[in-house]
Design goal:
The chain is of the alpha/beta class and about 260 residues long. The protein has one domain: LmbE-like (Rossmann fold). The protein contains nine helices and seven strands. The longest helix has 17 residues.
């Protein structure tokens, strides 16, 4: 049995980016540890959704625990930073945000978990955070440094296959029955730079259930849940990663191999 630690910025990121590899590792008998930098304090929620006196972060913690159970996580930890908001917003510079965190200090917190768990594999994000979110970029910086401090042998950078998404944009939109969101120029990574693709079609039901657990952020009318099951599998049935020193091209198909 090995240990997978998967590091994310906000509640719900885990099921979108790595839900399949988490559940696969669990079903293959490995230990799965989920670490989240913030409690997603700046997420959007409809008026009247929360109970009187309830803070959004409180609801999102409960949702994350439910999603973690669905995905097979054995342990859930929050690093204690606050949500920084989208790039360029004034909240980026607020005290206590993850974006303003000292990388060495935050990496030491994560490294302590990696050492305690004797982690064999760590997932982070690519160097531009998949689509440029400041907290996602910080996950990359902090995660890569933590792996150095802890001596974690394998680090996989979660990303999206930019070429596959762009080439299949029209087909995807037709199959999904929804309008494709604007992905922006910095979305994902060219396929030539990706070194690992994991087929998680067997676990898309778990991914979708975990997304539904994050009901404050992912509604039934959302892009993620509005599409039919076959379209969801088409969109989210493969998870993509970069590992330094691997390739060229995709040379790995299992994080825990």
């Amino acid at each position: 049995m090995a240990t997978l630690v998967t590091f994310h910025a906000h509640p719900d990121d885990e099921c979108i980016a790595c839900g399949g590899v988490m559940r696969k590792a669990h079903e293959d008998g490995h230990r799965v540890v989920l670490v989240i930098a913030t409690r997603g304090e700046l997420g959007e929620v409809p008026d009247g959704y929360l109970e009187d006196g309830e803070e959004l972060w409180q609801r999102r913690v409960v949702e994350t625990r439910a999603a973690a159970d669905i995905l097979g996580a054995d342990r859930l930890e929050f690093l204690g930073y606050t949500d920084s908001g989208m790039m360029g917003e004034p909240t980026n510079d607020s005290p206590g945000t993850f974006w303003t965190a000292d990388v060495e200090e935050a990496a030491a917190k994560l490294a302590a978990i990696l050492r305690e768990e004797h982690a064999d594999v760590l997932t982070v994000y690519d160097d531009h955070g998949g689509y440029g979110h400041p907290d996602h970029i910080q996950v990359h910086r902090v995660g890569m440094r933590a792996a150095e401090l802890a001596g974690t042998p394998k680090v996989f950078q979660s990303t999206m296959n930019r070429d596959r998404v762009r080439a299949g944009r029209r087909e995807f939109a037709e199959r999904a029955g929804v309008e494709m969101p604007d992905l922006g120029p910095d979305f994902g990574t060219p396929e030539a730079e990706i070194t690992c693709s994991v087929d998680v079609t067997a676990y898309t039901e778990h991914k979708r259930k975990a997304m539904r657990a994050h009901a404050s952020q992912i509604s039934e009318q959302s892009f993620f849940l509005a599409m039919p099951d076959d379209a969801f599998t088409f969109a989210f049935g493969t998870e993509w990663f970069i590992r330094a020193g691997q390739g060229p091209g995709i040379t790995e198909t299992d994080l825990m191999a």
